[in-house]
Structures are given as structure tokens and as C-alpha cells.
Design brief:
homodimer; DNA-binding transcription factor activity (chains A, B); three-stranded antiparallel sheet; DNA-binding (chains A, B); Rossmann fold; Arc Repressor Mutant, subunit A; alpha/beta; 15 strands; transcription regulation (chains A, B); DNA-binding
DNA sequence: TAAAAATCAATCAAAAACATTAAAAAACTA
DNA sequence: TAGTTTTTTAATGTTTTTGATTGATTTTTA
């Protein structure tokens, strides 16, 4: 039997049963214990499964949870700085939209005491907002598990009944030609509509996002003020020709 | 049986029952007492559960997240029974509405594995629903701080774009003359609309709510099936004349 | 409160599963 | 085909897991 075929069988059985015994795999593939062991070792290295004593087990969304955590710690310092700076643009009387995401989340701590109303599509944001005594409206819609963001038709419909003084949006890519982008088209649609409904839009991003572009376009550079942690002179000139920029670190 | 499989079973039973006896686990896994003890020790170290004399219990942390639920440990046992019973009415293929509130929250643990779609106005419900791999839509709207329920114009608008096979609603008062009632008129409006949009409505309430009435009316008795933990013969006859009733404890 | 029952942690030997190695078989190449 | 590489198997000693037993501790019962 071919190695590839054994691997297929192993992963198939695993998908069905969540965990499989080594002996079961020996029977299913008519190969020796050693061979299966080697297969498991290899598949584990490829992150296709997790070895356990006596067999193998599916590895599930623990990765995702971690990835969210990891992501939220990556460039955290920069994100906090950007968030604090962005919050300084919020004035009493404003009605603002807060996009789901780690950077906008960090803004909340700096909104305390301001006389504002917040609308958001981030479920994670809700607790923090209420904690800081900020009147909050949540969009409806389908819940994206990984980021706990509300998306889809429901979110868009809900959005349309609001209008904002300012909106604060996260982006994964900022590019002179391609504008602001994000990997998930569903998210892009929500971000774009929120910007349309705002008097003024702010895009929050750390410098690692500059000159990058991802799948789904949110808007052109001109359509928002970019808030970024740092930016060298050369790039700054190029970008300033196209859009308003606020650089945090001076 | 593999260690990983035992651990999975243990955590699954625990998620359903809150606490499990060691003996139950011995039977469920067909392994020895010692083995289970070792498993529990290990899982406790991994912060997956808490050992108690005679077995294991869910981590306290989960309950703490639910600060509102905490205080309503009043009649918790009854609520859990009602919730489990109510969940048995949910069938594959159903699209259901889950009202915010403690009793409906307890239903979620019993919905795992069912092929359903859930719409809810309870922000607290979201984590549990996603945890149990249930596709979930959230209504939008204003957030009532105390109960983390979505209410108001936004919630009503969002609701109107759905329709349900079944809805499960909590009520604070059940009265032969005044029907189903709840203290908050905003909540009543959402509950009422959800019922209108459902093929069939279930009201969940423990016996302490019987013959009580509170400020805002949700609906007449006839408009829903009442699920209650217990009910003496005399009252049962009176109520049965007006509406369908399911009594959990027989 | 004291005795009885249940549950517990600790220990141990048997069994199962493990990684490692070397030899055999198969696949490939020149 | 002969030589080389890759894959598989079998054998080795080591490690992990397991269930039974012990006496200590906790909970329940009377």
C-alpha cells in the first residue's frame, strides 16, 4: 500500500472518530505497527493530527484560540499607542462606529467619561464598553467564530439605520495602488458601509501593514485618515500626496 | 480505551451535567477507578475541571463569566430541568429563537450535535452556542447592561427579517387572567415579536412564576406551550383548560 | 458523637505502548 | 542487471499506562 493512501485512510478514520487507536490503523491498512507509528510521527509534524499514547487524535480549534491570542499580542505596544491616539479624536457628543478587532478594542479604555454613543460589530467590545459606562449599540448578524465579529446581511441591514460622526476601522493592508484591504470579503463589506455612513473615517493600522495588500478591498486611500504608529520620511511623502495621515510616534 | 478518548468523554459528560460522580465515569469508560482518578488529576492540572469529593465539577470560571446567572442560582436546579426538557423539543432542521435569560441559556448545553440554526438576543448565549458548534445569529440593538440582552428598535428590526420553527421564551409571570408577563416593556416587545414570527412558541418558567403577574404583557396563555417544572393537580386542570402545558417532573 | 461506608492518595507489578536499531524487502536508477 | 536508495518489518530494551491493594481521610449514617 502506498504511503499517501495510508495517510488518507488515517486522516479519514480520524475525522470520523475523533481519536483512533494504533491497532485499528494497523488493521485498517494491513501494515505493521512501526509503519503506522512512522506515519503518525510524520502527520503530526505536518500538523494534520496530534499523537496520543496509543494512537492519534484530531487537533481542533485550540489553534484558533491561540492564534487570536498570539495576534493580539503581536505589535501590541504599537496597537495600544495607535488606539490611544485615535481615541483623542473622539469628542463629546459624537456618535462613533467601532470596528471589531484588537486595535479598536484598545480604544475603549480611553473613551471613559466621554459623552458619546458607540455602535460596534464586535461582540468582544461590548463588555469593555459597558464596563466604561458607554451607551452601546451592537449590530446584528451572523457571528464569525474566530473574531466574534458580526457580519453578513444582518449586520449590513442594521448598519444602514445608523449614521456616524466618526468611524474607526482596522485594516490588514495599506497600499498606494490598492488602498485599504482586509482578508475577509464579508468584513470588508461591513467596514466599507460603516465608512460610507460616517462624516469622517479613520483607519487604524501599525506600520507592518504598510505597502501590503490582502484579498478584499475596503476603500481607497483618499476616503479615510490613516492613523499609523510610525512611517519613514520617504514613505510619508508618498502617502501624504494621496491621503491624510496621522503618525503617532514623532 | 485511549486516554484522549476518556478525557473527551469526561469533559463532555461534565459539560452536560455540571458535576459527575467518579463511578459514573468508571461505567461510562469501562476503566478502573484508579485510571479515572489519574485522569481527573491531570485534567485538573490542565484547568479543564475542578475535582470534588466523589467526582469532578465544571470550573467556577464559567459561572463567573455569567455574573447575572450567578445571582439567579435561585431555582437553578428547576431551571436546568426545564431547559433540558425544552431542548428535547428541538429537532434537526429547526431554526429556533432563543430568548435572553438564564433558563434558555441552560438549553444550549443540550443542543450540541443537533443540526439547527439559532437566533438569539442574548449576548451571553453567544459564547456557549459557538462553543457547542451551533451556527448562530445575533439580533442587533441597544444593550441592556444588567442582562446583556439586545432590545429596542434595532432588535425589533433585526427580528423582522427572520422566521422561526420554534421559539423559547422566558417569562416572569404566568397568570390565568393576565397571561405571560415580564417586568421590562422593552423585553416584552422583543419576546412578543419573536413569538409572532414562530410556528410554535414555548414559554419556560419554574413553578414560582405561576399565578404571578408583572408589569408588561408578552402574550395570552393560549399563544404558547408552557413548560414548567411542577404543577399540582388542581392548578393543572385550570391551566390545561386554557393552554398546552408540559410538566417536567411527573 | 462514634461507627460504618465511601472516597481518597500512594505504591507496585503486569501489560501495553514506545523509540531505536538493524535487517529485509521494495522501489528506483544507471 | 547490479547497485543504490527508500520503505517496511522485526527485535530490542525503555517508558508509560493500567488495575489492584494498601491504609489514610472524608462523608454519611445511626
Amino acid at each position: 500500500m502506498l504511503t499517501a493512501e495510508r495517510h488518507r485512510i488515517i486522516l479519514e478514520l480520524l475525522a470520523e472518530k475523533e481519536v483512533v487507536k494504533l491497532q485499528e490503523l494497523v488493521e485498517a491498512t494491513h501494515s505493521s505497527e512501526s509503519t503506522i507509528r512512522r506515519d503518525l510521527t510524520q502527520l503530526e509534524k505536518e500538523k494534520k493530527l496530534r499523537r496520543v499514547h496509543g494512537g492519534a487524535a484530531l487537533l481542533h480549534q485550540k489553534r484558533e484560540e491561540l492564534s487570536v491570542l498570539e495576534k493580539s499580542t503581536k505589535n501590541m505596544k504599537e496597537k495600544k499607542m495607535i488606539a490611544e491616539y485615535a481615541a483623542s479624536f473622539v469628542q463629546d457628543g459624537d456618535c462613533i462606529y467601532l470596528d471589531a478587532g484588537t486595535t479598536t478594542f484598545e480604544m475603549i479604555a480611553h473613551l471613559r467619561g466621554k459623552d458619546i454613543v458607540v455602535v460596534t460589530n464586535g461582540i468582544m467590545h461590548v463588555d469593555a464598553l459597558l464596563e466604561h459606562e458607554i451607551p452601546t449599540y451592537l449590530l446584528g448578524g451572523f457571528i464569525k467564530k474566530k473574531t466574534k465579529a458580526l457580519l453578513g446581511r444582518g449586520a449590513l441591514n442594521a448598519l444602514e439605520s445608523y449614521s456616524f460622526d466618526k468611524c474607526f476601522i482596522g485594516a490588514n493592508g495599506i497600499h498606494l495602488d490598492y488602498g485599504y484591504t482586509t482578508p475577509d470579503p464579508e468584513e470588508a463589506m461591513v467596514k466599507r458601509l460603516a465608512m460610507k455612513l460616517s462624516q469622517h473615517a479613520y483607519i487604524l493600522a501599525d506600520h507592518s501593514k504598510l505597502n501590503e495588500s490582502t484579498f478584499a478591498k475596503i476603500a481607497d486611500l483618499e476616503e479615510a485618515t490613516l492613523i499609523v504608529d510610525e512611517l519613514d520620511e520617504e514613505l510619508l511623502e508618498l502617502y501624504e500626496a494621496k491621503t491624510a495621515i496621522e503618525v503617532v510616534k514623532r
